Amino acid sequence: MGYMDIFKFSQEEIRDLIISTLAIALIFAWYGRGIPHLDSWFGILFLISIFTVGSGFILHELAHRTVARHFGALSEFKAWYEGLAIALVLKIILGFTFIAPGAVYIYKDYLTSKENGLISLAGPLTNILLAFVFYMLHIPLISDLGFNVNLYLAAFNMIPVYPLDGSKIISWNPLVWGIISIPLFLWVLGLFNINLF
């Protein structure tokens, strides 16, 4: 696989990335339950959600994809349309936010424990980096949402339970897992605070 193939997208993959990003942004911009009120405030929240939440989910998946391709694996993002439909139904009926937009599917005869660990680590590290990019922006609401959502995404994915990223990282290198996950878990529990403003 050539260097440029790492960044090559099929038309189906581009479609799935766009649909997943828009669906994620819609669900996060949609407060309460029932059908959302399509007013100017909803439009503003939708755009902010595309920028903050959508970027967090999609760039997390693309990081897995890129590192997997670096190791010679075939990898492609595929939307989980059933999961997106369930998310919309739960939002309408219960007002509950559930996100399962899809995943990167990786195909290779054999991945070493280290390769699998590094592929898995790429997603949470991307979210941590994005969180601090939003932190540095210092734009109310955008910075707050982008920072918090990305750190929560990183922390959730570092839980060492299969199929989450943490299970593959801890199998490869428990020290790396601890260095990344423990501060995240402390932050989620409110034992480690970072003030935005």
Report on this structure.
The protein has helices at residues 11-29, 40-70, 81-94, 113-137, 142-157, 165-172, 174-188; strands at 74-79, 102-107. With 197 residues, it is mainly alpha-helical. It has one domain (4-188). It has a two-stranded antiparallel ribbon with strand order 1-2.
List keywords for this structure.
mainly alpha; 197 residues; 2 strands; Metallopeptidase_M50B; 7 helices; globular; two-stranded antiparallel sheet; 6% strand; 65% helix
Q: Please tally the β strands and state the result.
A: 2
Uncertain spans? none
Tell me the radius of gyration. 17 Å
Q: Characterize the main sheet.
A: 2 strands, antiparallel
Task: For the record, give the distance between the C-alpha atoms at the N and C termini, rounded to a whole number.
Answer: 45 Å
- The shape, in one word, is globular
**Helix count from the secondary structure assignment:** 7
What's the pLDDT, averaged over the residues? Answer: 88
Output the strand order for the largest sheet: 1-2
Share of residues in strands: 5-15%
| Fraction of residues in H or I helices | 55-70%
Whole-number count of domains:
1
Q: Structural class, from secondary structure content?
A: mainly alpha
Give the SSE order as H and E letters: HHEHEHHHH
